[in-house]
Amino acid sequence: MPPKVKPVPAKAGQAQTYSKTPSRQRRPQKQQPAPLTDRLKRLFTSLCAQVDGGHFTNAIRTCNKILRLDPSDRDALRTKLFLLLQTEQYDTALALIAEINEQSLFERTYALYRLQREEDAAQVLKEIKNSGKEPEQRGAMHLEAQLSYRQGSYQSSLDIYNELLETADPSSDEHADILTNLSASQSHQNFITTAFMQAMSRLPSSIASTLESAPPPLLSQPASILASVEEPTKKPEVVETKKKLRTKRVPKGVIPGASPPPDPERWLKKSERTSYTQGKKRRGAAGGATQGATVGAESGPVSAGASHGGKTGGKGKGGKKK
Q1: Is 83 exposed, middle or buried (CB count within 10 Å of its CB: 0-12, 13-18, 19+)?
Q2: 155, 167, 291 from 150: Cα distances, Å
Q3: 3-class SS at 41?
Q4: Which segments in the chain show pLDDT lower than 50?
Q5: Helix, strand or coil for residue 319?
């Protein structure tokens, strides 16, 4: 459809002309995308705010946006690896380490330790020790102590924690964590060396001999050896007790078992009950006269005075005075 032509008002002495501009407004042109550097700057600003605020899930999404624009950005890759470990996505973290072809020995050891792959974690710990990198040595010592504690080498764990405690700052969070782990390792080591033997000496001889001769239980199927020695306990007999009727629910003046039961039709209308009977009609109900009734011919003529309300000797309408 051709555009409408609007007339343009002509000036004095000129002929009227018509404009060919369409009546509809032109659509605004699309804005050009911002430069790559500006977009990356905005995304990194959002990423820093999300990490500081603890919004790790949203921060991972921001890292993915940055990597779509620049897949080789090392800062975004390292940040994403840190966030994956913080959100306990250890399999994804290991896949990212293998994808970027970076050693990241400490991060890989930590992910293997949390996935309970102790043998693989121990091999990577050896690589960290042989590398001689100072920043990773202290973190590797923490991981080695925790790995020894999990494997039952409590004395080795104690030695590592004592070594770390000597060089830790007393006002730091690391110092408090070391003391906690040191106490746990010390308690387990004391139980193995002294407390276990003291507990064995307190047991009866029959149970102690059974424990000493029995093989150790399997880790996958833990079994209690004491259960086979002790006599099976009898199940307590269940005594059936009759529930007592609550006194609060009994109406006042009613004795349970002695008072007659209530009428089952007490919730019905009286007219709907079986014991309801219709009352007798009143006598002579239809014998009275109604208003305006006339007396029959047998009763005789009615006087004119009686027909006017019993007034006699009065003045009639339009009557004359005597």
Answers
A1: buried
A2: 12, 24, 113
A3: helix
A4: 221-226, 229-232, 293-319, 322
A5: coil
Q: According to the model, what pLDDT value does residue 222 have?
A: 45
- Supply the pTM of this predicted model: 0.52
Q: Which residue has the tokens 């219709």?
A: 278
Which DSSP symbol is given to 305? H
Q: Which two tokens stand for residue 80?
A: 């994403």
What per-residue confidence (pLDDT) applies to 314? Answer: 47
> Taking Cα atoms as reference points, which of 148, 156, 157, 178 lies closest to residue 166?
178
Is beta strand 6-8 parallel, antiparallel or unpaired with respect to 17-19? antiparallel
Q: Are 158 and 145 in contact (CB under 8 A)?
A: no
- Exposed/middle/buried for 318, CB within 10 Å: 0-12, 13-18, 19+? exposed
What pLDDT is attached to residue 179? Answer: 93
Q: What SS3 class is residue 178?
A: helix
Distance of CA 304 to the CA centre of its chain: 99
Rounded Cα distance between 144 and 141, Å, is 5
H-helix or E-strand spanning residue 6:
strand 6-8
Amino acid at 193: T
Give the span between the Cα atoms of 159 and 260, in whole angstroms: 85
Residue with tokens 């005597």: 322
